[in-house]
Amino acid sequence: MPKQVDHEARRRKIAEALWQIASTRGLEGTRLRDVAAAANISLGQLQHYFTSKDEMLTFALGHIEELAEQRIRQRIAALPGEPAPYDVLRESLAEMLPLDEKSRTGNLVQIAYFVRAVHDEETRKKAQEGIPALRGFFASLLRAGQERGDVADGRDVEAEAMLLIGLVDGLTSYVLLDVLTPDAALALLDHHLSGLFSSPSAPATSSAP
């Protein structure tokens, strides 16, 4: 009887092989043949799932995001009681930082994708698509914080949301360059959030993951 192949699992395995290579060589130094070898399949098998490096990268980035969302849900579920907007925002931002090997690899792949997007219009369009949704999500949490009295009413939540994205991107760069330790980056994030959520009812700090 023919062996049943889990095609989605095979695609994820290929994506993970791409992460490992791209995180050390960059995308320009990543060949389909190398990814196939790292995934322990033939080049022909790989091309059955992905016809181009860009198609494979798009799937790999989506898979990274799915895993990150799973980890965020796990972090929030582990918190005591009903999570407040602060909790959801803080755990989401912390997951974006390279605090461990998995998130570090994910960030390195995203940086490789960013470098490609700077020079390739089609890749750049795809990279831009996720920013408005992320900004909107963070703004909705800040707006909910205002409704609870945890965030000052005068705050421009859309601007603050974009500043948070920029803050995490900057902290990520400094962790990857070994200018900051992961713990130091997380402490700086908490410091910023403690000023943003500055009402007496809002938490001043949050525990490390």
Automatic annotation (TrEMBL):
Keyword presence, Cell membrane: no
Keywords, sorted A to Z: DNA-binding, Repressor, Transcription, Transcription regulation
Record-linked PROSITE patterns: HTH_TETR_2
Keyword check for DNA-binding: yes
Pfam families in alphabetical order: TetR_C_6, TetR_N
Signal peptide: none
Protein's name in the database: TetR family transcriptional regulator
Species: Streptomyces daliensis
